[in-house]
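Bench notes, afternoon.
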Amino acid sequence: VWLLVNQRQTMFFGSSERMKSVTAAEATALAAWRVLGAGDRVGAMVFDDSDIVTIRPQRSRNQVMRVLGAVIEKNHRLNASNPEPANPVIINEALRQLLPLARHDSLICIIGDGSGVDDETTRLITRLNAHNDCLFVMVYDPLEARLPRAGRLTASDGERRLVFNSSSRRLQDDFAADFEERLETLQNLSRRQAIPLLPVSTAEPVIGQVRNLLGHRVTASRF
């Protein structure tokens, strides 16, 4: 089993319970321990905007801790004032590196918010899905799906504060458009390649959501 985990700057966002990056980390931990418990090997590619950490599959508790350690390290590097430019296409580089490593009969679990997914991503996942099984865990925050009309709100990274007008029509439209574009891209990929799409919200415990999703037939239409 390969876990591809997005810890880019786009994941450094959360409106209530937890950040998207933390939700992705929890989903990774849940998947890694489940894989080990089933007696399978687990490996990972953990990426941010600058590089990719590759951990080849092994079957041991220490291996799970290595995977989680890589996620935690990337998570701790996230901050709102990061000077590194965004690199949305790094997911494609991760997938290209995975192609020769996952030749057949692997389960590939992509965990992220759908940012950076483009036509090249679709092509690469299609190639991987031809001889493996893929699934996508889309981590999202409810605020991304629908920005409430609540007037002036304050966002903070723990040090700095930003006040904005959440009732602005332009801001509302921009939020909705970005989310809908990411969602539609993943839904289309899910339908065309029969790849399960699991939507996981930052506002609820991850384990309960995953149990509920896996207890039903998971399709793009469930979002």
